[in-house]
Amino acid sequence: MKLWMAMAGGALLALALAGCETVSKEQCQAxxxxxxxxADGSVGHPAARxxxxxxxxxxxxxxxxxxAYYAGWQEGVQIYCTPMNGYNLGRNGTTKSNICPPAxxxxxxxxxxxxxxxxxxxxxxxxxxxxxxxxxxxxxxDRFTLNTTDCNxxxxxxxxxxxxxxxxxxxxxxxxxxxxxxxxxRIMQKQQELQATEIAVxxxxxxxxxxxxx
Length: 214
Known about the structure:
This protein is mostly helical. Helices cover 78% and strands 0% of the residues.
């Protein structure tokens, strides 16, 4: 029994370590450090990632080439730090990496802020719409409670509490209806703001981002 538990524990530990690996055994065996560095740089990973790669590959008896990795990583940085990529990251609300060198960081950050401005305007609308859906679901649940609760069927000593609960439920439904009305008005306003933001951002992006809109 103890042997079985030890073996099971070892297997679980191996799985946990495998899940935490920066690179797979197959990637280590392939040894294409330039391609690996390029791939990491192109998605914003820092150059220090090579330290984890060396540890992971070392467990398989393989020694990476840091110089080759770094050469590829620099190529990847050129891909990551384009204005177009910065814009797309911002538009998706993705946190940007700080790997861009001084020569590229200005246009990259400016494009990122343009995209993030668009994401923020859309997110405001989505948040309000989500709140409306949540309130509508709450109203449905409260209506079900009202329709399935018969205070005449409870014990006499519990009827006052039952009626108070029904009254509070009706009040909650009414409050939710009023809030939904207000939210729908705010959604209409935010949608108008979003349209204006889209026009302004698209015009500026077309001006400062090479290849935008093509």
